[in-house]
Design brief:
The chain is an all-alpha fold. It is 97% helix and 0% strand. The chain has one domain. The radius of gyration is 44 Å and the shape is rod-shaped.
């Protein structure tokens, strides 16, 4: 083999070694990126689950708030009715007392 051919073979072997090294680095990068992607997908799924649970809790709390408002409105209406009945009864009592005093 001539000196030129030997140099070409050495150059090709060096290029091959560099390419092999580059390939190995890229394979490691791909492996790491896949791991990162898997971790990100896991975190995303976990966050989506938390969002769903939070939305369910919000809906439940909104339902409770609505029910409480309805209950409070009913109680306020009952209270107004009782206050009106009490006022009417008091007026009737005052009227009877006045009539009784007028008779005596």
């Amino acid at each position: 083999m001539s000196v030129g051919q030997e140099q070409d073979v050495n150059d090709l072997m060096n290029v091959r070694a560099e390419l092999t090294q580059e390939r190995d680095k890229l394979l490691n990068d791909i492996t790491q990126l896949r791991r990162d992607l898997d971790n990100s997908a896991f975190k995303q799924n976990d966050l989506e689950k938390q969002i769903q649970e939070s939305n369910e809790q919000i809906a439940s709390l909104q339902e409770k708030i609505t029910q409480t408002k309805n209950d409070n409105a009913k109680e306020a209406k009952k209270r107004e009715q009782l206050e009106l009945e009490l006022k009417t009864s008091k007026q009737n009592l005052d009227l009877r007392n006045a009539e009784f005093k007028a008779q005596t």
